[in-house]
Amino acid sequence: MDSWNSIFKDKGKVFTKPHRDMKDIVDILKEKNSKRILDLGCGTGRHLIFFASQGFEVYGLDASHKGIEIAKTWLTENHLNCNLTIHRMEEKFPYEDSFFDAVISIQAMHHNIIKKIKFTIQEIHRVLKPNGLIFITVPISKLSSKNNHPNFEKIEKGTYIPLSGPEKGLLHHFFTEREIYKVFKGFDIKKIYLDKTKHRAILGFKK
Ligand SMILES: C[S@@+](CC[C@H](N)C(=O)[O-])C[C@H]1O[C@@H](n2cnc3c(N)ncnc32)[C@H](O)[C@@H]1O
After folding, report:
1. If you ran DSSP here, which 8-state letter would residue 7 be given?
2. Distance 205 CA to ligand 1 centre (A)
3. Ligand 1 mean position to 108 CA, how many Å?
4. Are 130 and 98 in contact (CB under 8 A)?
5. Is the pTM of this model over 0.90?
6. What's the N-to-C CA distance of the chain in angstroms?
7. How far is the CA of 113 from the centre of ligand 1 (A)?
8. Which among 55, 72, 146, 169 would be 20 to 30 A from 8, CA to CA?
9. pLDDT score recorded for residue 150
């Protein structure tokens, strides 16, 4: 993950506060007596800190060694502990079947082509316990409705690479709502909504 390594090297912690709806997720997890959470594409660790400080058993996976390094330091400073792994999410996850009560993934899963994203979703399904929770956010399309997108190179239907800006060169898959229901067919999707950062948030449970 060279691009994310350089972003984290340049900027350090890109995000410091947790997603504002994460408190509601904690309420659901506590009600379900959930304990073990995977943060997929955890970056520099804002949600690792958030969940670990509330007593959850937290695992973080990210392809960026710089992100994981910053997360480790941040956790140590707060006397917290998480299980961290440098790994690409389009490869088989290093966890047993039905291991987690919940998988969260904030602004991370869309950095791929759809075939690989589908494999990631299959892996999320595999490592989740029955009725396990997912809370995932992905960006909405930044493209205009015109056919010409001079700042994006089209890779396949719905997948683009920005040719400028801070995420230049990074794959972006822009899901339609219909596509989300299709690719997450193994999950009972409770709601899909636009969050305060204008990302599409997906809340569901493993069928
Ligand atoms: C916008 S950051 C979000 C970080 C974190 N989820 C948060 O909300 O603070 C995207 C993260 O996804 C990770 N990422 C992107 N593609 C990945 C992949 N294929 N496998 C694992 N991690 C990936 C990047 O390294 C980066 O840390």
Report:
1. H
2. 22
3. 4
4. yes
5. yes
6. 32
7. 14
8. 55
9. 66
pLDDT value, residue 1 = 59
Average pLDDT on 190-198 reads 96
- For ligand 1, say whether the CB of 142 is within 6 Å of any of its atoms: no
Stronger pLDDT, 205 or 163, i.e. the higher one: 205
Averaged pLDDT, 153-165? 92
> How far is Cα of residue 113 from the mean position of the Cα atoms in its chain?
15
Mutate to test the pocket of ligand 1, among 4, 11, 58, 117 (most ligand atoms within 8 A of CB): 4
Q: In what order do the strands lie in the sheet with 100-106?
A: 83-86, 57-62, 36-40, 100-106, 128-139, 199-206, 187-194
What residue's CA is closest to ligand 1, atom 16?
111
The answer to whether the CB of 181 is under 6 A from ligand 1 is no
Alpha carbons within 13 angstroms on the beta-carbon side of residue 85 total 16
Q: Is the CB of 119 under 6 A from ligand 1?
A: no
pLDDT digits (tens, 9 = 90+) for 79-120: 999 999 999 999 999 999 999 999 999 999 999 999 999 999
